């Protein structure tokens, strides 16, 4: 049968959809060179009909499938049915909605976010699965790793923005193609290269994690001076709509904990010039020990959105330093965050 590639598709996801192997698709589509080839929207594929005695697809395969904006939007009706509130907090450069999910009814507000870097889509998938499991335990009034989720969510309200950089994630998953509105710009930034595994910026080549008005000038001097696949801070703080959306959203609330999830390295960045509350150190030490990751690093300089625990408002420029934790962890270990984050950040 013929299948036309849709936005967000990858070879692995199409193979999973039709219960065939990626290799089977390669055999029947000579214009696809390898399992790492990008599938552009509108591309026609021939999908073979293969009858097998044993199923090819297991939970482990599904766990490792790529995840992006389309997957989030497909999930929204199911999440709403499980009692999760969904709102749009802003739009990306390419006018894609930035979704925030909310669960819980408590006065204490907590904020998680992921998908800041385009090649870290794993964090978006983890956060969506995480809030979905929270909702299921709340609805069923069941314990999760010994924790009474229903009781915890009566005391706190958890907000999650799973994907801050949808345009960048789409680029990493599907590559660039002539009908893409930023085709020429992206190729120029990437020096003509058409592979994007290394790309962490948004679609305009700005690193969203370098956009905060907390020592932006210092970081900008040490970063690339033009749009680049990573680390370019932009022409000024908060020039990018994705960063501004999260910044505005945060300032509409009074979050007690704010965590930004990443998937490269095994470290927790926290602290800001010794101004963080005393309880931050204890919090990060406990998290580090429970996750068995390398010792946390207390930053002495400003390097984008980094860590700590905030108990009070300290002004917009300092908020990002005193109220944000940035956790870096490999994909294969992300499920371990489930009970740990409940323990340290929902219950405390």
Automatic annotation (TrEMBL):
The keyword Zinc applies. It comes from the Bacteria. Keywords: Hydrolase, Metalloprotease, Protease, Zinc. Pfam families: LysM, Peptidase_M14. Transmembrane segments: none annotated. Its cofactor is Zn(2+). PROSITE patterns: LYSM (PS51782), PEPTIDASE_M14 (PS52035). One of its GO terms (cellular component) is extracellular space. GO terms for molecular function: metallocarboxypeptidase activity; zinc ion binding. CDD domains: LysM. The keyword Protein biosynthesis does not apply. Residues 1-47 form the LysM domain. InterPro entries: LysM (IPR018392), LysM_dom_sf (IPR036779), Peptidase_M14 (IPR000834). Residues 61-348 form the Peptidase M14 domain. Belongs to the peptidase M14 family. This is Gamma-D-glutamyl-L-diamino acid endopeptidase.
């Amino acid at each position: 049968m013929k299948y036309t590639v849709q936005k967000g598709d990858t070879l692995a996801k199409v193979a999973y959809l039709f219960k065939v192997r990626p290799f089977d698709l390669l055999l029947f589509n000579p214009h696809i060179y390898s399992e790492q080839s990008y599938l552009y929207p509108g591309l026609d594929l021939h999908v073979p009909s293969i009858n097998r005695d044993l199923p090819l697809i297991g939970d482990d395969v599904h766990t490792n499938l790529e995840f992006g904006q389309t997957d989030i939007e497909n999930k929204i009706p199911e999440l709403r049915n499980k009692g999760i509130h969904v709102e749009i907090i802003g739009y990306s450069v390419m006018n894609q909605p930035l979704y925030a999910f909310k669960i819980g009814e408590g006065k204490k507000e907590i904020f998680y976010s992921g998908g800041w870097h385009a090649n870290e889509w794993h964090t978006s998938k983890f956060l969506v699965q995480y809030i979905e499991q929270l909702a299921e335990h709340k609805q069923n009034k069941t314990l999760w790793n010994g924790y009474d989720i229903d009781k915890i969510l009566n005391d706190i309200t958890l907000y999650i923005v799973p994907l801050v950089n949808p345009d960048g994630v789409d680029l990493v998953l599907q590559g660039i193609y002539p009908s893409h509105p930023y085709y020429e710009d992206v190729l120029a930034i990437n020096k003509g290269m058409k592979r994007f595994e290394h790309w962490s910026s948004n679609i305009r080549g700005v690193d969203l994690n370098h956009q905060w008005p907390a020592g932006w000038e210092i970081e900008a001097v040490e970063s690339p001076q033009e749009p680049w696949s990573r680390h370019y801070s932009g022409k000024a703080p908060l020039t990018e709509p994705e960063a501004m959306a999260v910044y505005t959203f945060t300032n509409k609330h009074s979050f007690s904990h704010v965590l930004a999830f990443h998937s490269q390295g095994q470290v927790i960045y926290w602290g800001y010039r010794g101004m963080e509350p005393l309880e931050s150190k204890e919090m990060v030490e406990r998290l580090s020990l429970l996750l068995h990751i390398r010792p946390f690093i207390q930053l002495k300089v400003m390097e984008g959105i980094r860590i700590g625990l905030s108990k009070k408002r300290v002004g917009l420029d300092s908020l990002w330093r005193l109220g944000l934790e940035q956790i870096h962890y490999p994909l294969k270990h992300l499920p371990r965050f489930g009970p740990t984050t409940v323990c340290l950040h929902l219950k405390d």
